[in-house]
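Q: what sequence does this backbone want?
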């Protein structure tokens, strides 16, 4: 599992296994199925900015819309976020 902090509203579907706190599970219990290693949404679930969640996928493999509202936690994850940002902001060296 890879840990993230949400920086905006994050919508997550059934294709990801999540590691959540007891409070997060309780408030979304109607939309979660417990599996070995975590909980899988049975429908889209949302997390507000500032929540900590774990996802079974590395940052660079997440959809861009989800990456835009997640901040990886940990040194390897932070490097992945920086590399992704650097690759997306390559303007060919043009000055404004």
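A:
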């Amino acid at each position: 599992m890879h840990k993230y902090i949400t920086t905006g509203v994050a919508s997550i579907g059934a294709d990801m296994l999540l590691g959540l706190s007891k409070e997060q599970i309780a408030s979304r219990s109607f939309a979660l199925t417990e599996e070995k290693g975590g909980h899988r949404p049975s429908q889209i679930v949302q997390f507000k900015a500032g929540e900590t969640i774990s996802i079974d996928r590395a940052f660079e493999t997440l959809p861009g819309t989800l990456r835009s509202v997640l901040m990886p936690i940990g040194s390897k994850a932070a490097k992945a976020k920086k590399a992704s940002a650097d690759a997306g902001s390559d303007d060919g060296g043009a000055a404004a």
